[in-house]
Amino acid sequence: MTFDSKYWAVILGGSSGFGLATAQKLSRHGMNICIVHRDRKGAMKRIEPEFDAIRKTGVELRTFNVNALSQEGMSTVVDDLTAVLSASGGRVRMLLHSIAYGNLKLLAPIPDEKAEAHNARIGQLAERLGVDAGKVQTVIDELFEAGTEALAGVATPAVYKNEDLLHDEDFALTVFSMGTSLASWVHEIWQRDLFCADARILGLTSEGNEVAWRGYAAVSAAKVALEAVARSIAVEYAPYGLRANIVQAGVTDTPALRLIPGNQHLQAAAKMRNPFNRITTPKDVANFVYLMCLDEAAWLTGNIIRVDGGEHISG
């Protein structure tokens, strides 16, 4: 299936993970791509070949290495899109919010007793085996990192910064960055009359929207805010043809996930309970976003849709 050559996808956070996979998928089906990202100069050596691959599909690609969370950055992108789309008659078919920028701090310090209890368990095991406790822990960690998920409970626990806890400004930054900024982008593009008559607005949430992961409180609040904003967009922008839905992806190995303390433990738990015995991939999510861009998905709006291979329901 090939999309209308005048269709564009605007992807916020499109240089890696879900955003990049979506850009790759949609470009292979003929959709023009606008990627907004924020990366250091050194990272571009990895990113540019990915962008070149998109260009080789024959679609038009415009990329902006700017701060998508600033009015200046947003105006730079939308001004350019306005000029390009006005000249070609193009329209934005899909806006994907895939910004991962926030604070991963604890609300409260982890008691020393937790680490002591873990060390005691390893000590008991080492004593029964007649070997050094440090050696036992090293072997366990090596096997766990190599993919033996069942050892998650005895692998070295995640390391958190007990002295650097969440504050109000951390919440404010994270909730805006990963949540309410979706409304700003929708309004800016809508105000310029760039959306097509049947546009799709998509955002990304996670199981952390209702499960309390350590260090995830600010991001969890942002995800819930994103879901609330999307529901309001679905209702209030419906007269203008916009459909808004949120994708709840399963645990996925992305650069954003790797920043979360204990991410290997999260991946191990997800894989063990997933009925397909693997975690979600960016490609899985990109394939679903593609489906959501089809004409046949027009009656879907205001939903949170799980794309996790059954991870959530396999308690």
Q: What is the fold-level CATH name, i.e. the topology of the largest domain?
A: Rossmann fold
- Would you tell me the structural class of the helices and strands? alpha/beta
Strand content: 5-15%
Radius of gyration: 22 Å
Helix content: 40-55%
CATH homologous superfamily annotation of the largest domain: NAD(P)-binding Rossmann-like Domain
Gross morphology? elongated
Low-confidence stretches: none
**Straight-line N-to-C gap:** 37 Å
Give the strand line-up of the largest sheet.
3-2-1-4-5-6-7
* Sheet having the most strands: 7 strands, parallel
Number of domains: 2
- The DSSP helix count reads 10
Q: What is the CATH architecture assignment of the largest domain? A: 3-Layer(aba) Sandwich
| CATH domain class of the largest domain | Alpha Beta
**What is the H/E order?**
EHEHEHEHHHEHEHHHE
Give the rounded overall mean pLDDT. 95
What does this structure look like?
It is a single chain. The chain has 315 residues and is α/β, with parallel strands linked by helices. The protein has two domains: 234 residues, 3-Layer(aba) Sandwich (Rossmann fold), CATH 3.40.50; 40 residues, no CATH class. The protein contains ten helices and seven strands. The radius of gyration is 22 Å and the shape is elongated.
